[in-house]
Amino acid sequence: MKWIVAVCMVGFLVAVTSAGRHQPVFEHHEEWQLWKSQHGKSYRSGLQELERHLVWVSNKEYIDRHNANADVFGFSLAMNHFGDLSDNEFVDKYLSYTKSDKKKRNVKMFEAPEGVSYPESLDWRTKGAVTSVKNQGDCGASYAFSAIGSLEGALSLAQGKLTYLSEQNVIDCSVAYGNHGCQGGNMYNTYLYILSNDGIDTSDGYPFKGKQTSCTYDRSCRGTSISGSIAITSGSESDLQAAVASAGPVAVAVDGSSRAFRFYDYGLYNLPGCSSYQLSHALLITGYGSFNGNQYWLVKNSWGTNWGMSGYIMMTRNNYNQCGIATDAAYPTL
């Protein structure tokens, strides 16, 4: 005759049979199974799944507590494909932006035109200057997606058509210029590579693989070249607005280490404790505006459409350079 003893251990239940076999009983079982199915999650063993489940439960509790006060915070969170990663695991895997010495990268400084007024709101997506949301997968190369996104915008505004360019080309071929493949980099090293290489391939000619491979740049697949890059005065959101309004989408980097950023879903992201100097993730500013009376930057991420507002986030604007949105910003020139 079998007997069952329910043992509560660190937030989960374990059923023990008379045969001595331990079988985990997961919390929120249906929701856990649905989440695994939605995001194609599978694990090598029952023990590994249990370990990942515990992390998922912790993240779910954080999300639920935040959303209970979403009206106070001004933005809501949602579970996504990062749900089974701890804070340290997430940082190590995805937050790999590295700062660079602009002076050593032959970068010119942005000079805002005098006497020019800019629109109160702007969305470059409506003007055909922004490609669809991409997904960097498990490759820590947000810098490549950010830099390429700005170049795609500049090229579209110059040619009147949208061309998808290759992040994989950057990941594979810009190591000699200071980037580290799927282990981090920045937009300045990326633009230096494209300038020195006299070109970057299209994404069709050099498709994304999700990992670093050997450099196979093919000039016959070249999508464009650049003449240089321009950096925004560090910390100046007014200059950043002028650059976005006059030049197009701009590559930026922010402090993305908070769980609130990782699980952002909707609303104006305003996190006073966010660092303006410890930058860890690269993004693309595609516009700006106001939401419920508060100013925001419209920012494109590279974590797929299941993250945020279909891949986008509204980040607070003109709020003391929160999260370092204007600390390290640049765009290329054709």
From TrEMBL:
Domain Cathepsin propeptide inhibitor residues, every copy: 32-90
Matching Gene3D superfamilies: Cysteine proteinases
Signal sequence region: 1-19
Domain Peptidase C1A papain C-terminal: 118-333
InterPro entries reported in the protein's UniProt record: Papain-like_cys_pep_sf, Pept_asp_AS, Pept_his_AS, Peptidase_C1A, Peptidase_C1A_C, Peptidase_C1A_papain-like, Prot_inhib_I29
A Pfam family per the record: Inhibitor_I29
Gene Ontology terms for molecular function: cysteine-type peptidase activity
GO biological process: proteolysis
Family in the record: Belongs to the peptidase C1 family.
Protein known as: Silicatein beta
Native source organism of the sequence: Tethya aurantium
Species classification: Eukaryota, Metazoa, Porifera, Demospongiae, Heteroscleromorpha
